[in-house]
Structures are given as C-alpha cells and as structure tokens.
Amino acid sequence: MINIRPVSDLRNKFPEIEKLVIESSEPVFLTKNGYGSMVLLSIEQYAVLTDSLELKLDEADKAAQLSDTRYTGKEVFTRVKKRINE
After folding, report:
1. Is the pLDDT at 41 greater than 90, yes or no?
2. Using CA of residue 39, residue 43, residue 46, residue 50, what is the dihedral sign?
3. Is the pTM of this model over 0.70?
4. Among the CATH numbers 3.10.129.10, 3.40.1620.10, 3.40.190.150, 3.40.50.300, which is that of 3-41?
C-alpha cells in the first residue's frame, strides 16, 4: 500500500517513519502543501534501484577507455531514441 505522509512528519515522527521504511521495504512519499516533495527509501531499497545501473555505467566507462570513438550528446540521444522506437 502506498504510504503518503506530510513532510512535517519527518521532523515530528522520524522514528516512526524510519521504522516504517525499514520494516515495510516500501518507500514513504512526503508531501508539502499537498504536493509531492520527496521520497524516503532505505539504503537497501536504494541499492536495489541503482546497483544494476551503476554496474552498466562502470561497463560503459571501461568500454570508453578502450575505444577512441566519441559521440556528441545529440548523436547519443538520437541513437537511444531510435532504439526505443524499434
């Protein structure tokens, strides 16, 4: 279930929110003046979201070091858009 709390709860009920984030393994969405402000994740949740991305970036860095080929930002985005649309 999605857990949405006012950002003031971060200050006033930190231990409760911390426990919720860690025990439920789900993010807590914080709002300010009725609008989304931020999302709280445990370190483990964050790692699940980013570890594979960081590995891919490391692979790309290694490949770039082994190659003299360089692309402009425009070339990269054109190629990415083309692959997405295929």
Report:
1. yes
2. positive
3. no
4. 3.40.1620.10
